[in-house]
Design brief:
- By secondary structure, this protein is an alpha/beta fold.
- The chain folds into two domains: 178 residues, 3-Layer(aba) Sandwich (Rossmann fold), CATH 3.40.50.720; 107 residues, N-(1-d-carboxylethyl)-l-norvaline Dehydrogenase, domain 2.
- It is built from twelve helices and ten strands.
- Strands 3-2-1-4-5-6-7-8 form an eight-stranded mixed beta sheet, with helices on both faces. Strands 9-10 form a two-stranded antiparallel sheet.
- α1 links the parallel β1 and β2.
- α1 packs across α2 and α8 crosses α11.
- Bound molecules: nicotinamide-adenine-dinucleotide.
- The site of nicotinamide-adenine-dinucleotide (NAD) has 27 residues, from α1 and α5.
Length: 327
């Protein structure tokens, strides 16, 4: 049978687990900055790179703001914050930092082509490092296939915001060696996080379940079943979820969620993961959630305020007439 790139077989072995002291984060967006803040706060020499110069330049201030929040919540002292910032190095050129890295965590956009290009370059520039991807849904095997050492490639999937969320999903590719898994688990534990281990399969455990719930909630908005705020309350107050599926989608980024839904539709089931028209429209209009200031809510900093979301696809504006949307 031709391989579809997903792991269904046993894993081969290599030697002893690599020791991790220095980390390079590739991609300085929402996740990259959070991952860099977490690594630096836990004692790792941390470099952060992005091909967009402005993203590199603004990374230290953004990481400082994340750490300051943690300090304000009593999670770290002033001295620890300063020490963490001292361990952070923004790098315009990836080559030098890659050579020195024991672990690279890639947090670039959710595109297989982009990630394969990055891993192919890292294969050359970071010859001794474990290469990890923060992908939410893409095949580890397909990403690892762009390198000559798929045994040292693994998924280390953080949640947003990485400093605060307790879980990290470790995604094991078909050729990931046991030693790479041991190193990844030890690294995640050293960050003070709980890990689960998941076989390389579309959407892993968390994205597959989270996106399924999120897409259904968006279809309910389209159909005018209830307002976004009421749909979220249904899961928060009714099912004990810490955050409803629409607010979660806003936090993740609707563009990121759409990319994951499209990947799951291709890989798993066109019918179950077909993205609702409303999601595509909102992304096309730049209403990508918290980072854009507008998604299913209007965002002022961390505050989410209800807003009107027209029931796209229904064509009758039914959601517009529902209560709970204030503008
Ligand atoms: P983002 O759009 O906020 O950031 C992506 C960054 O990558 C940008 O700064 C961009 O300039 C940079 N970039 C673009 N091309 C690049 C390249 N060739 N090499 C390196 N960097 C490049 O995206 P994000 O939300 O931080 O997501 C990054 C990854 O993390 C995606 O794979 C996503 O699926 C995953 N993820 C996201 C979340 C979330 O809640 N946003 C949660 C878990 C995992």
């Amino acid at each position: 049978m031709e391989s579809d790139g997903y792991n269904r077989g046993p894993m081969p072995s290599d030697s002893s687990p690599p020791e991790i002291r220095s980390v390079l984060v590739v991609g300085a967006g929402t996740m990259g900055r959070g991952i860099a803040a977490l690594c630096a706060s836990r004692g790792y020499e941390t470099s952060i790179h992005d091909p967009v110069p402005a993203a590199v330049a603004s990374a230290p201030a953004a990481v400082a703001a994340l750490l300051e929040k943690a300090r304000a919540r009593g999670k770290m002292t002033d001295a620890e914050l300063r020490a963490a910032l001292g361990r952070l190095r923004p790098v315009a050129s990836v080559e030098e930092a890659a050579r020195a890295a024991d672990l690279v965590v890639e947090a670039a956009p959710e595109s297989l082509d982009v990630k394969r290009a990055i891993f192919s370059e890292l294969d050359r520039t970071a010859p001794d490092a474990v290469l990890a991807t923060n992908t939410s849904s893409l095949s580890i095997a397909k990403i690892a296939g762009s390198t000559r050492r798929p045994g040292r490639v693994i998924g280390i999937h953080f949640f947003n915001p990485p400093l605060a969320m307790p879980l990290v999903e470790i995604v094991v590719g078909p050729e990931t060696t046991p030693e790479t898994i041991v190193a990844a688990r030890a690294f995640v534990a050293s960050l003070g996080k709980e890990s689960i281990e998941v076989r390389d399969s579309p959407g892993f455990a968390t994205s597959r379940l989270g996106v399924a719930l999120g897409l259904e909630a968006i279809r309910m908005v389209e159909e005018g079943v209830a307002s976004p705020a009421d749909i979220d309350r249904a899961m928060e107050a009714g099912y004990g979820h810490a955050m409803g599926p629409l607010k979660t989608s806003d936090l993740v980024g609707l563009d990121v969620r759409l990319a994951i839904a499209d990947a799951l539709a291709r890989e798993l089931s066109e019918e179950r993961f077909r993205a609702p028209a409303l999601l595509r429209e909102m992304v096309a209009e730049g209403k990508t959630g918290k980072k854009a200031g507008e998604g299913f809510y209007r965002w002022e900093g961390n505050e989410a305020r209800p807003r009107t979301v027209a029931g796209a696809g229904s064509g009758n504006g039914s959601a517009r007439r529902r209560r709970g949307s204030s503008d």
